[in-house]
Amino acid sequence: MNSRFVVYLLGWLLLMEAGFVCVPLLTAALFGESIKPYVMTIMIAVIAGAVLVQFFRPSDRHIRPREGFLVVGGAWIAVSLLGALPYILTPGALGAVDAFFESVSGFTTTGSTVIGDTTVLPRSLLLWRAMSQWLGGMGIILFTIAILPLLGIGGMQLFKAEVPGPVADKVQPRLANTARSLWGIYVALTALEWLCLRVAGLDTFEALCHSFTTLATGGFSTRNASVGEFGSAAVEWIVIVFMLAAGINFVLHYRVLVGRGKEVLRDAELRYFLGVVLGFTVYFVLTVHHAGDRIIDTVRISAFQTVSLLTTTGYATTDVELWSGAAQLAVIVLLILGGMSGSTGGGIKSLRTLLAVRSLRATVHRLIHPHAVRPVKYAGVVVEDSVLSGIWAFLTAYFLIAIIGAAVVALAGYDVLTAISASLTAIGNVGPGLGEVGSYDNFVHFPGFVKITLAVCMLFGRLEIFTLLAWFSPEFWRR
Question: pLDDT value at position 157?
Answer without folding.
Answer: 52
